[in-house]
Amino acid sequence: ENGTTKNFIENFIEEDFKSNRYGQRFVTRFPPEPNGYLHIGHAKSICLNFGLAKKYGGVTNLRFDDTNPTKETVEYVDNIMNDVKWLGFTWEDRLHFTSDYFDTLYDYAVKLIKLGKAYVDDLTKEEMKEYRGTFSEPGKESPYRNRSVEENLRLFEEMKAGKYADGEKVLRAKIDMASPNINMRDPVIYRIFHHEHHRTGNKWCIYPMYDFAHPVSDAIERVTHSICTLEYEDHRPLYDWCIQDWDDPEGQLPRQIEFARLNVTHMIMSKRKLRILVEKGIVSGWDDPRMPTIAGIRRRGYTPEAIRDFCDRIGVAKADSTVDISLLEYCIREDLKLKAPRLMTVIDPVKVVITDYPEDKTEVLTAENNQENEALGTRHMTFSRTLYIDRKDFMEEPVKKFFRLAPGKEVRLKYAYIIKCEDVVKDADGNIVEIHCTHDPESLSGSGANANRKVNGTLHWVNAADAVDVETRVYDYLLNGADEEEEEGTTSKDFLDQINPDSLTVYQSKAEAALAGYKAGDHFQFLREGYFVIDQDSTPDHMVVNRIVGLRDTWAK
Ligand code: ATP
Ligand code: MG
Ligand code: MG
């Protein structure tokens, strides 16, 4: 989707404008259930709904679909609002709760009873399932299906008044038990639930089902285009059925349009499973930087710009597919490439001593903040006799094509000198504790006779004297294998088997002094290492950074 070609939803919308179906009105909604945190799949729906409203001069409602009081909380409501705002979208005064419509929904259900289109049923859940039939055989009508309107009105009112226990009775739509579409075989539209609701308290003990509450709420809000995911395609006849008796002032009833839900490799896209990870302590919380939640992705260091770009690039499709996570990673690299300062941090440090460099000398060097964006200016770095480089940049017995430091080999230290490894110092266990080098005094970058002398490798480094201690958290994917999460319906145990036990590695790192001037949420490129963000766990004397993503795709496909 590149802005010049239209997707199928835009085609529908433009046809509707042409045929004057909704006049000049264009209203979408984003309808989360506040039973968990939003994830990247929801971001797709948010960008789509708010994006279309912007494109067509319409508006988008934020509506909390809060019809299941056992799973919903105010904490989730608040976090969802925060996430939508953070993504860059505003709903202004268009904040709604399905629970605000409970009276209206009840009255409308009464209207359906009066029209002979709904009835109170006493079948148990199991019986109802049995009566519903299968794809290949029609369902059977409930013996309670032909109750009189008067009896249904009385029973429904008694349900509301709390006369019956949970599950004792339900209100069903009276449609067609022989319909080839099972969703049309008299679906339940109200159930009894003696449970306190986070907004309506104990006022109600009957709650509308999603398939009824959703279309009617859309109609109440005068939504024009109700965009949902593909699983609801088979529910569309029910959506239309539910609102056919709704009195819209202009006779303009909403239409449902389905698109393929977003799946991303290595990412879990179900609130239910994400909740299991949180509850089992497999992650530190909903905002763990490995989580595909908006809160987790934000803490990981992703920007709203990168997520919106990702949602644009994947476009909307009518068939389910899985997007490779490398596209998301590409989007954050693209966003930060020119914006983020590039500093030097040695993630896994080993000491380097330049034995021929004076002990009491410190040079101040100038480094560019972003080699591709001069506007970010320059900074100072100090250089002296004792430095750190990364352990992975040294091999005592180098393999072929190892162009970094090794005994007898030369490398350039970025912005500084060419050094040559002369010796290594080991501890009693044989671990390298110091690398001893000499330097070419004529090789200082930007000056000196050998400033442009070519050597095979250039390494990043920091000066031991003023380096800042930093805890670096390097993340791997939470889900093993390149496969997306398994099909819905498999047990949670299967899904837990796919969890990567090594998804977090923590290093005690050394960063150049400049890092101390930044705050939580600031983004960087660490030279040769990738993109990083300062984590909220940082304190004035203990800095923590998260690796957002490496510099390029290093994952085996
Ligand atoms: P989950 O299965 O994770 O609980 P949900 O669909 O039940 O997700 P809701 O809070 O009901 O969660 O979703 C709010 C909106 O976000 C719905 O319109 C839904 O279609 C959309 N949405 C949810 N997941 C995705 C996804 N993976 N891709 C695109 N849209 C999604
Ligand atoms: Mg849902
Ligand atoms: Mg769900």
UniProtKB/TrEMBL annotation:
<keyword id="KW-0648">Protein biosynthesis</keyword>
<dbReference type="Pfam" id="PF20974">
    <property type="entry name" value="tRNA-synt_1c_C2"/>
</dbReference>
<feature type="binding site">
    <location>
        <begin position="261"/>
        <end position="262"/>
    </location>
    <ligand>
        <name>ATP</name>
    </ligand>
</feature>
<dbReference type="InterPro" id="IPR011035">
    <property type="entry name" value="Ribosomal_bL25/Gln-tRNA_synth"/>
</dbReference>
<feature type="binding site">
    <location>
        <begin position="33"/>
        <end position="35"/>
    </location>
    <ligand>
        <name>ATP</name>
    </ligand>
</feature>
<keyword id="KW-0963">Cytoplasm</keyword>
<dbReference type="InterPro" id="IPR020056">
    <property type="entry name" value="Rbsml_bL25/Gln-tRNA_synth_N"/>
</dbReference>
<feature type="binding site">
    <location>
        <begin position="269"/>
        <end position="271"/>
    </location>
    <ligand>
        <name>ATP</name>
    </ligand>
</feature>
<feature type="binding site">
    <location>
        <position position="229"/>
    </location>
    <ligand>
        <name>ATP</name>
    </ligand>
</feature>
<dbReference type="InterPro" id="IPR020061">
    <property type="entry name" value="Glu_tRNA_lig_a-bdl"/>
</dbReference>
<feature type="domain" description="tRNA synthetases class I (E and Q) anti-codon binding">
    <location>
        <begin position="458"/>
        <end position="535"/>
    </location>
</feature>
<comment type="subunit">
    <text>Monomer.</text>
</comment>
<dbReference type="InterPro" id="IPR050132">
    <property type="entry name" value="Gln/Glu-tRNA_Ligase"/>
</dbReference>
<keyword id="KW-0067">ATP-binding</keyword>
<feature type="short sequence motif" description="'KMSKS' region">
    <location>
        <begin position="268"/>
        <end position="272"/>
    </location>
</feature>
<keyword id="KW-0547">Nucleotide-binding</keyword>
<feature type="short sequence motif" description="'HIGH' region">
    <location>
        <begin position="32"/>
        <end position="42"/>
    </location>
</feature>
<feature type="binding site">
    <location>
        <begin position="39"/>
        <end position="45"/>
    </location>
    <ligand>
        <name>ATP</name>
    </ligand>
</feature>
<protein>
    <recommendedName>
        <fullName>Glutamine--tRNA ligase</fullName>
        <ecNumber>6.1.1.18</ecNumber>
    </recommendedName>
</protein>
<feature type="domain" description="Glutamyl/glutaminyl-tRNA synthetase class Ib catalytic">
    <location>
        <begin position="27"/>
        <end position="337"/>
    </location>
</feature>
<keyword id="KW-0436">Ligase</keyword>
<dbReference type="InterPro" id="IPR020059">
    <property type="entry name" value="Glu/Gln-tRNA-synth_Ib_codon-bd"/>
</dbReference>
<dbReference type="GO" id="GO:0016874">
    <property type="term" value="F:ligase activity"/>
</dbReference>
<feature type="binding site">
    <location>
        <position position="210"/>
    </location>
    <ligand>
        <name>L-glutamine</name>
    </ligand>
</feature>
<feature type="binding site">
    <location>
        <position position="65"/>
    </location>
    <ligand>
        <name>L-glutamine</name>
    </ligand>
</feature>
<dbReference type="InterPro" id="IPR000924">
    <property type="entry name" value="Glu/Gln-tRNA-synth"/>
</dbReference>
<dbReference type="InterPro" id="IPR004514">
    <property type="entry name" value="Gln-tRNA-synth"/>
</dbReference>
<keyword id="KW-0030">Aminoacyl-tRNA synthetase</keyword>
<dbReference type="InterPro" id="IPR014729">
    <property type="entry name" value="Rossmann-like_a/b/a_fold"/>
</dbReference>
<dbReference type="Pfam" id="PF03950">
    <property type="entry name" value="tRNA-synt_1c_C"/>
</dbReference>
<dbReference type="InterPro" id="IPR022861">
    <property type="entry name" value="Gln_tRNA_ligase_bac"/>
</dbReference>
<feature type="domain" description="Glutamyl/glutaminyl-tRNA synthetase class Ib anti-codon binding">
    <location>
        <begin position="340"/>
        <end position="440"/>
    </location>
</feature>
<dbReference type="InterPro" id="IPR049437">
    <property type="entry name" value="tRNA-synt_1c_C2"/>
</dbReference>
<dbReference type="Pfam" id="PF00749">
    <property type="entry name" value="tRNA-synt_1c"/>
</dbReference>
<dbReference type="InterPro" id="IPR001412">
    <property type="entry name" value="aa-tRNA-synth_I_CS"/>
</dbReference>
<dbReference type="InterPro" id="IPR020058">
    <property type="entry name" value="Glu/Gln-tRNA-synth_Ib_cat-dom"/>
</dbReference>
<comment type="similarity">
    <text>Belongs to the class-I aminoacyl-tRNA synthetase family.</text>
</comment>
